[in-house]
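FW: tagging you since you asked about this chain on Friday. Here's the raw sequence from the shared folder, copied in full. Didn't touch anything.
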Amino acid sequence: MATLAPYLLVTLSLNLEYGYGGIPNFGKALSVATGAFVVGYLPGRLAAHLLGIGQGLDYIKYNTAIVTEITKVLQANILLSMLLLTLTLVVAVIAGMSIGSLVSYIVTRRRMSFAYLAMVLLAAAEVLVIIGHNYEEIAGGSLGVSVPDPFAWMGGYRFLAVTLFMLIVVIAVYVYVHFLTNSPLGRLLKAVRDNEDAALALGKDVEMIRLKIMTVSSGIAALAGALYSFYTVSVIATAYHRISWTFWPLLMVILGGAANNFGVLLGTFVFLTVRKLIIFYKEMLAQIVPFDVVWLDMLLLGLALIVILLYRPHGLIPEKPVKTISVAGSAPRDAKSEERPGSPRRKFKI
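HL: got it, structure written out here
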């Protein structure tokens, strides 16, 4: 669950953009890395300043010693640990929303196509990771940094505490996304996705709708990056590359079923379970396959994506049809329901 929870947050946010909004975000790693870099930069320096630890010392150069002293203090102070954790997560979400909104605003205001938006987001994610990898002040550069452990007060139960906390966060975000997507805004997102011209004709501000959903989803993804960093108590820029935090989550959404929140949860769980099994047992195939087994999980998962798109393009749990408005007291029907006997043939379009 500890590694599953961050991916659940990322896939839920990607489902908002791609599943409901039809926005191909190929730069999801941008928001995730933003949240991680906030954790790498903020809590250690803030705690060191407040506690008077390592004054006059270079935080990056003496990172291990400074963070070790901070963690000792946090281990004996539950209130300070929770305040530091909460403040960092809030700043990470705000930073993720800001950077996602900025990039989306630049593209939407220039009225670029989705292809340009996808490429800009992908390039922005790569640029941020390169900056984090080379500029040591953010997250230690190529060596990374250690971060204070706000769950150190749990002692031997630290892993359980982190798991339960992230599970609570995932449940809260899932409930929020569920009500959001089942609200008029969720139906409006589907309308914009399916027929942008029709939405424009009805007076809807399509650009602002997409900007809002990109902002919200970027904040959720940044929260995932921050939680993952607190779980590993370290941040290294190279861990937030496009394969793990953009393309794998996209595959999870497609596997579970785009525009279906429960399907996305199922797809994420199935994907990560299968991947773990491949990683654990791929050494057994070392004498069989004619290549290095280090590439086996990527090859099998890539093959799985091709099979899914060919035979199950709508995912394990397809998107639920939208109910049409009931007529003259009759029960609501979906757009794909069968016609009543004796009634004239009509075609309903969503």
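FW: The chain has one domain: 4-261.
HL: agreed, and Residues 49 and 55 are 7 Å apart (CA to CA).
FW: great, closing this out.
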